[in-house]
Amino acid sequence: MAVRSASRSSAVTARSVIGGSLLVVLVSIVTPYSEYRLHSVELFQGQLPLGALATLVVIVLPLQCLLARFFPVWRLRESEILFMFSMGFAGLMVYHIGMMGLFLSMISSPEYFASPENQYARYLLPYLPGWAVVPNSNSAMTWFYTGLPSGAAIPWRVWVGPLFWWWSFFLAFLVLCGSLTAILRKQWFDHEKIRFPQAEVTLALVEGSGGESSRSTVSGSPTFWAGFALSAGVLVWNSVSYFRPI
Fold this sequence. Notes:
Elements (H helix, E strand, L loop, with lengths): L1 H4 L8 H24 L12 H21 L7 H18 L4 H13 L7 H4 L16 H7 L10 H35 L5 H10 L15 H22 L3
Helix pairs in contact: 2-4, 3-4
């Protein structure tokens, strides 16, 4: 594929970073709204989450066509599109099941759920470092779980210490993962020729979008659109039936 031959340095540009950052902000707003407000689809679920694919198919690729039509100079390269998609994908996974959905509950729950019955105060809390959990000072964690009283200010101060130390650990862990990836990349890619089937979907959707027409190669396939219509039709029917039962 043409995407594979694109230079890695051409992917990280000012516009791809800005576009990817906007996608991260978008998925961070839309995903919790869909889950907690609409009680609808969980956009972060799946090996290739719907939210990640939606940012590519509904936003990035149509935007590429508009740029090619009206502002050809600003047309994105395929590598830039993939970089933006990767940022949105990572942001989507960090939001919930990948990190924050579990992490915030783990550091905020010990003091809040402590009770005479479970005896957390005796058997658990004395062994937890103060920097690792958020204290229930001035009912801060009670408000976190039950809602902020009218007129009360968000108690940011109690979060600063634990978040600082945990994010320091996460940063070190990400550096470790990146270093391991760099060490293993040559063996995996150049010698073992390992393929990544999940990535093939994204590559197929993007391939050809950097050309003159800015339309991906797969978008011209009748078979693709037949399969898309079949699966999308079921999803649309289920969604409409959920909000307006027939």
